[in-house]
Give the backbone structure.
Amino acid sequence: MADRSPKRRPRSKKPPAPSRAGGTRATTSQGEIGRDLQMRSELLWDGPTRPSRGPKPALRGDDVVQAAIRIADSNGLGALTMHAVAEQLGFTTMALYRYFPSKEALIDACVDAALGTPSRRAAARKGWRLEMRDWAYAKRAMLCARPWLAELPFVAAPHGPNWLSWHEAFLQTLADTGMTPEDMMDMLGLVDGFVRGISDTAISLARARSQGVSDVEWAKAVGADLSRAINDARYPVLSAILSSASGGVKADAPLPTRGGRMRSMDEHFEFGLERVLDGIQRYMDAPTAR
Amino acid sequence: MADRSPKRRPRSKKPPAPSRAGGTRATTSQGEIGRDLQMRSELLWDGPTRPSRGPKPALRGDDVVQAAIRIADSNGLGALTMHAVAEQLGFTTMALYRYFPSKEALIDACVDAALGTPSRRAAARKGWRLEMRDWAYAKRAMLCARPWLAELPFVAAPHGPNWLSWHEAFLQTLADTGMTPEDMMDMLGLVDGFVRGISDTAISLARARSQGVSDVEWAKAVGADLSRAINDARYPVLSAILSSASGGVKADAPLPTRGGRMRSMDEHFEFGLERVLDGIQRYMDAPTAR
DNA sequence: AATAACTGTGTATAACATACACTTATCTGC
DNA sequence: GCAGATAAGTGTATGTTATACACAGTTATT
């Protein structure tokens, strides 16, 4: 309060902010993570509370978000600058600050908007296992569709409405299994963790594609690293796998979609997911534990 | 070749590079991901090929890396600027470019160095399950010890020697199980994906700690988001879990280490990991599949 | 010694995020 | 229907960054 008069705010030491500029929000520079996150969270959940004194804004916050997402979608996070967004909308860079107090806040909003909500799928009750499987595939697809999401430190962002909607959808999967709340949350962490963790490669490929890199080119780059292990004494097992690998893997494209031998990325995901679901099933079948 | 004479390099259009500055390397700006990654990879694997004409360098590349890591460790990625590193070493900013062609290359090196190598643990053969468990815990601990690693888009980095050494250690776990190479790689993806994915929260806490944020403060910030779901019609199940949760979870600190009810983060990890290992075990016991 | 090939330094520049002051439009209370 | 009060967009300025470029001092090779 009493911060309205123009020209104010000593802002103590902070110059134009440590300017952690660039593509991604790095650490929150100083140790005010708590406060900071809370403020960002409020911005995400509580709309901007339009006052009714001055002229009405020419845009809605969502217009800004959509423009920003468009840019990130087509050119990656690196291209997402305040200037670029403003230009896209036909406004000055500074105009955006009437809608979001910082680039970080805008990105928070973009993330939540980009996450979207898992399609209700008519709540088709097919049993937790199949539903969970659908959920996992949907989440993976969503992540691959917006590869730039993975360029952000996930945890650093506040969890907005859509973020929670994914959680909700997952939990509904278990709603009628009689599982304890604690177990349900653990299951969520398990499956969600697995999906996010294992999707890195697929996301990387998706990003390469969206930047105009051919699959072959990408595979070559990624494969090159792995192939260094071959004949390196430090990696006996890995080396053996890569060189033998039932049928001879081409040094390039070890995981990628080779029709040849090594399993495709999707098969890789499918395999892991089935193991995870097996593990869950086992737990549900024999609730002796704990 | 023939790129040695001073003053050269038209560099066609590239100004000082699209300057994707800031804390994290965002997308590689343009669509030259393939080439770019390859060059970065070479830098990582093949040392810098010291010529022997001029004065000998005052530093080794590793000194630079260590200085950079020190900064990232104590102040986060945001504090890792070329200037800060140079200062730490008592040199000019530009001196660093004699050791690494770009900040990105330096970070690549830092990442690999920070990953380290999993302790050989005397290769104690206790059976794949226990060994795998150790591996998972070790990897998680490593990630938490260097929370800034998670601020980087993992896949974007080339896989250096240490990165592969983690893979190797995992695979050795399965070396005498008679598993096919394909299955072994799938297992790696499964466990590694799970560990990285689920560790996000623990890493976030670790980062908060290293920035001087108290656990309570952090938990409050994270919990605030979740607690918004309570009594929100959009999240019936989540809401029920959060409010009921056998014993009444304090709205703040839902996952964190509450002695109260909800399981601690470590229990959460343990739980998920056991499910994953169960799933793997089941697969190994009944190799009918595929 | 002469020189080529380096090393570290100083300076310059472009991209960014964002502070601040200003002009103009719009609503509210009289 | 008018006088403020207040907000929206703009223009300009600043500090931070990465990094290009040219130069001065060094050293192994000729």
